[in-house]
Amino acid sequence: MRELDLKTTVDLLNSIMEFELAGVVRYTHYSLMVTGPNRIPIVDFFKAQATESLAHAQQVGEILTGLEGHPSLRIAPIEESFRHSVEDILKESISHEKKALDLYKALLGAVTDASIYLEEFARTMISQEEMHGLEMRKMLRDFSGL
């Protein structure tokens, strides 16, 4: 086992927390903007994504404070495309999930062989983010023929 690089780990966790909090805002916004005949299940899907992003941010915050870090009060920047078709929203969501996946992979790289708990946490989150991406790609198929 190597020693955990506390500063790098705390910095990554803060970036993840900021990104997950941005996800709360993003997915809440999407849930409000969906229109059309399939609105209800899609709204429910995005509300669930917002709730899950908040749970992830809280979990990361607990880990941060456990490592004697200080959770950020910021959220990551959120770009507004002003395109609100379900297809556009799903494409933006896939991009968001990819960025989250990259952050969790960076965390995994930073903690491998230094903390089994943090490794397992990162792997679990990577798995969840990959599943979200797959689910959204399935949802997008009817729109783009993917």
Structural summary, described in words:
The protein has 146 residues and is an all-alpha fold. It has a single domain (6-139), classed as Ferritin (Up-down Bundle), CATH 1.20.1260. The protein is built from 4 helices and no strands. The chain has helices at 6-33, 39-66, 86-111, 116-144. The model has no long low-confidence stretch (mean pLDDT 95).
Structural class: mainly alpha
Say what the CATH topology is. Answer: Ferritin
Rounded mean pLDDT is 95
Strand count, sense and barrel status of the largest sheet are:
none
The helix-strand sequence is HHHH
Please count the helical segments: 4
Question: Which CATH-level-2 architecture?
Answer: Up-down Bundle
Number of strands: 0
Give the low-pLDDT segments: none
CATH superfamily: Ferritin, core subunit, four-helix bundle
Instruction: Please state the overall shape, judged from the principal axes of the Cα atoms.
Output: elongated
What amount of the residues lies in strands?
Answer: under 5%
Instruction: Give the total of domains.
Output: 1
Fill in the keyword field for this structure.
mainly alpha; Ferritin; 146 residues
Reconstruct the topology from this structure.
Elements: H1 6-33, H2 39-66, H3 86-111, H4 116-144
Helix pairs in contact: 1-2, 1-3, 3-4
Give a brief rundown of this model.
This protein is an all-alpha fold. It has helices spanning 6-33, 39-66, 86-111, 116-144.
